[in-house]
Design a protein that fits this description.
single chain; about 350 residues; alpha/beta; Membrane-bound Lytic Murein Transglycosylase D, Chain A; D-Maltodextrin-Binding Protein, domain 2; 10-stranded mixed beta sheet; two-stranded antiparallel ribbon; 11 helices; about 20% strand
């Protein structure tokens, strides 16, 4: 009997060693003296340019200035390409299992009684039918609505003609609420369509709006004075409010020259060719465009701070008779998945996949 007990104890000890030896990825990093986000990224991700991933994952504690970290601050680091390893709170590395393909259920007459949610494709990495679970924000919305469990049920509808979302689909309550949409500063721009006609939920996810520059002609953005006389590029049809908000008035006062070609790729190519000092795009669109153009060795993120931090929201048209109540249902579900850790898991899983593609 003693020999059996001894063997069992040894087996348990060996098992515990095996668990302890399991490799982890991601986790919590505590800021030490002399740290900066780029130094942390260089050490832990072996890529200093991934400081933006750390900033984006810790906006609630860092704020919009990436230099505003302090000794003792705890930063949440997403697992990217198997790094960083061995941090406290990291997830055990297991073989990745691809999510099941998104299944879009067809509507029927009974669907009219549900909360009908509108989104569309071609907005990677947030919403696209070919992405895992429909993209990061499609996944968040699905889980949030499941957590809210509205009595009437809900259905998500995909309409890829984004121009039809505000008018007529939401304005006529043909569908109830929609995502994801950027909210302008309605105090500064009260007469814009979105401010006059839409109600917004709390933000589901914030994305950094960055300046992409030529590595051979580096530029930093730490203060508005840094942009004096610069030529910036932003595609036609993209919001230009970011150039004038927070009192910077770059466009209004003619402090910058703005180029507006057709596409993000046009902007990146203008930077590569020296026709613009920087391209202003959201982080994921910019990095994806750079990769597709094969310019990863030439175009980099400007040092300093983001131009802005944009939230992605659920919206409802103000004419909808139950609009505020519908947004409240969604926000209740969003609060629940944030409280139980589901939201963080979704973001981490998607961010791991997204960053692995850059």
């Amino acid at each position: 009997m003693k020999r059996l007990i001894a063997w069992a104890g040894a087996a348990m000890f060996a098992s515990s060693l095996s668990v302890a030896a399991q490799e982890t990825c991601g986790g919590t990093y505590t800021v030490t003296r002399g740290d900066s986000l780029s130094l942390i990224a260089d050490e832990l991700y072996q890529n200093a340019s991934q400081w933006t991933a750390i900033h984006a994952a810790n906006l609630s504690s860092i704020g919009d200035n990436p230099n505003a970290i302090r000794v003792g601050m705890k930063l949440s680091l997403t697992c990217i390409n198997g790094l960083p390893k061995g941090l406290p709170g990291g997830a055990v590395v297991t073989e990745a299992v691809a999510p099941a393909p998104l299944q879009v259920a067809p509507g029927n007459a009974a669907t009219r009684q549900k909360i009908n949610i509108l989104t569309g494709s071609d907005f990677a990495p947030f919403t696209h039918k070919e992405l895992p679970n429909g993209g990061l924000l499609a996944d968040v919305v699905q889980k949030a609505m499941e957590a809210a469990a509205p009595e009437q049920g809900f259905a998500v509808h995909w309409v890829d003609d984004w121009a039809s979302h505000h008018e007529p689909l939401l304005s006529n309550a043909l569908l109830d609420i929609g995502f994801p949409w950027f909210q302008p500063n309605c105090e500064a721009e009260p007469n814009t369509y979105r401010c006059e006609n839409l109600l917004f939920s709390e933000s589901m996810f914030e994305v950094l709006m960055l300046i992409f520059v030529n590595k051979d002609r580096p530029m930093a953005f730490n203060s508005n004075a840094d942009m004096q006389g610069k030529t910036l590029c932003r595609p036609s049809g993209y919001s230009t409010f970011i150039f004038d908000h927070e009192g910077r008035n770059w466009l209004r006062d003619g402090l910058i020259t703005l180029e507006q070609p057709t596409s993000p790729a046009d902007c990146i190519e203008m930077v590569a060719e020296g026709k613009a000092d920087g391209a202003v795009l959201n982080e994921f669109l910019g990095r994806d465009t750079i990769k597709k153009l094969g310019l990863g060795d030439q175009i980099v993120v400007a040092q300093g701070r983001p131009v802005s931090i944009d939230g992605n929201h659920m919206i409802v048209h103000k004419s909808h008779p139950n609009g505020p109540e519908l947004l409240a249902v969604f926000e209740q579900g969003l609060e629940r998945i944030k409280a139980d850790g589901t939201y963080r898991r979704i973001v981490d899983e998607h961010m791991t996949r997204i960053w692995a593609t850059f």
